[in-house]
TrEMBL record:
Pfam families: His_Phos_1. It comes from the Bacteria. GO terms for molecular function: phosphatase activity. It comes from Gordonia terrae. GO terms for cellular component: cytosol. This is Histidine phosphatase family protein. Substrate binds at R79.
Amino acid sequence: MPNQTRARSIDLDNPFAPLDGLCELVLIRHGEQALSKELSAAQTVDPPLSELGQRQVRAVAQRLSTHAVDAVYSSPLRRALDTGRAIAEHHGLEPVVREGLTEYEPWQSFPADQSPFETLPHEEISRIFRDHIRTRKYEAFPYAEDPVAFRERVLGEVGLIVDAHLGQRVVITCHSGVINAVLADALASGFDMPVRVHHTSVSVLRGADTRRAVQSINDFGHVLDFQTSVGAMNL
């Protein structure tokens, strides 16, 4: 059973302190997905891993294979779930799927059978992404889901995971938006996306009750032996 001792605040910030009363969260973005401008809005929600993404997943799974992992949680979207399965296999585990870890949908109210990139004028697409990069806010996407509801969903789900795994290390395979929601909350950032999270990067936090402390962010050193660039569709 997880240790139920109340954590000292100082231990949240100490990466070498025992996990007494703490949960260590290892947040992993999924491997690169197979995206193209021809995909409809509905198809962009759950694309499979690309060939590069599969290689990234093998690399991060191998990296974590020597770490103690007590549980693996995953978004239900297949790029995240396939990432979670590869990591969990090394530890004799199965990923626990949680709907609350599903990615933010920037095209939620756009016609599902149409491609935003082929339907909207190039100037409008450019403006949307330019404003998003400049402001780091989801408000730039006119067809997106409610960002406040998204953040509340993610933080609520992560809170349940922390409470269930005090004294343990948990891997969560999910998405850039999900990881950014957790980081923004922990860092008291006003941005929706304070960090450009790379595929299969590792971010580590410690948590107890509502407290969170960031240990590391966006470590993707395990892909540097074979990846030298990233496409604009896959940032």
